[in-house]
Amino acid sequence: MRKLQNILVTGGAxxxxxxxxxxxxxxxxxxxxVINLDKLTYAGNLENLKDVEKNHGGKRYFFVRADxxxxxxxxRVFREHDIDTVVHFAAESHVDRSIHGPAEFIKxxxxxxxxxxxxxxxxxxxxxxxxFHHISTDEVYGSLGETGYFFENTPYDPRSPYSASKASSxxxxxxxxxxxxxxxxxxxxxxxxxxxxxxEKLIPLMISNIREEKNLPVYGDGRNIRxxxxxDDHNSAVWAILTKGKSxxxxxxxxxxxxxxxxLVHVLCEKMAGFLGKxxxxxxxxxxYVKDRAGHDRRYAINCDKIKKELGWKQSYDFNSGLDMxxxxxxxxxxWIANVKSGEYQKWMEKNYGxxx
Length: 357
Ligand code: NAD
Ligand code: TYD
Fold this sequence. Notes:
Elements: E1 6-10, H1 15-25, E2 33-38, H2 50-56, E3 61-65, H3 71-80, E4 85-88, H4 95-100, H5 103-123, E5 131-137, H6 161-180, E6 184-189, E7 191-193, H7 202-211, E8 216-219, E9 225-230, H8 231-244, E10 249-253, E11 258-260, H9 261-276, E12 287-290, H10 305-311, H11 319-332, H12 334-342, H13 344-353
Parallel strand pairs: 1-2, 1-4, 2-3, 4-5, 5-6, 6-10, 7-9, 8-12
Antiparallel strand pairs: 9-11
Bound molecules: nicotinamide-adenine-dinucleotide and thymidine-5'-diphosphate (TYD).
């Protein structure tokens, strides 16, 4: 089992990264420190980590506001905190935004990963046990028809600027393993859901719009399929890889839980009706089919037998109760959503951390 001491988490103020940090600091087999390096883009939110800062700030948890593309800042963090492990979440993560503005995706997802790898290469020369874990997506494999699954050896076929930028960074990580003998692992995960997800992604967007009785925009014919996994299950898989994964290996992570978008939106409408005391069909009238996303991938489905067999990981949430818990979280945290959406949060950030990068 790999021993981890000073973990650099990039993008730790985002959705998956903030959940990862919270779980990591509660992990019984981890006694080390976490350094969260985040640029705080529109998607990064320190409110996600208020409890962590309160309980562990300055002791086992440290926040550094920096861009992963800033080589000096990254190298400084590696040296000042004697980093031995990197868990690299930081990215521009939304496909729609990548269609409208790909440049930032290439910069952060590709160049940023390069800067981190270079820092690891120069700071870790010969450092025993040092390891770099790269968080990636199933979208690098392209789009499936009605049958079949993505395996770890499925050829890459990215089709959006987002997935192409993630695919390129995956190749770079592998290249550093082969060329420089850097200890690395990569995980390619399916769609996540859970608390603290920015309400631009399907599930929190629908929950938030249902609550406000706004239109529910369903792209195209609504029959695209995604494989949904609770964020805690993603993060327990990352922990398994960090502690037991083999350098040079890729691990697929998935929910084995495929849903057509429109069916999922129906379920969200029905569940929300239950929570908010409306009759079952009440919110479905808000559904509106809108113009399809350009290049919209039809179906993603992950085969995750490898991580199950080799590292003993499995999902722990069933989708029905996971969704209930998630909906309740968004209902109980309406202020969080309001802050994120109204720009209040952005103003708060500017006041506390200066003008946004
Ligand atoms: P997110 O958009 O919620 O968070 C991204 C975080 O990265 C934010 O805190 C942001 O401030 C930070 N960031 C962005 N650019 C940065 C930069 N240049 N320097 C430093 N920090 C920067 O994303 P997420 O949904 O939490 O995704 C995290 C990772 O997981 C990404 O690499 C994404 O590709 C991958 N992933 C996400 C999903 C999903 O369903 N959300 C599925 C599979 C893989
Ligand atoms: P999204 O959450 O953006 O994740 P990804 O594109 O990375 O899979 O979208 C999930 C699916 O939902 C995808 O097929 C696009 C679709 N979608 C809609 O139909 N309407 C929406 O408003 C959004 C955000 C997504």
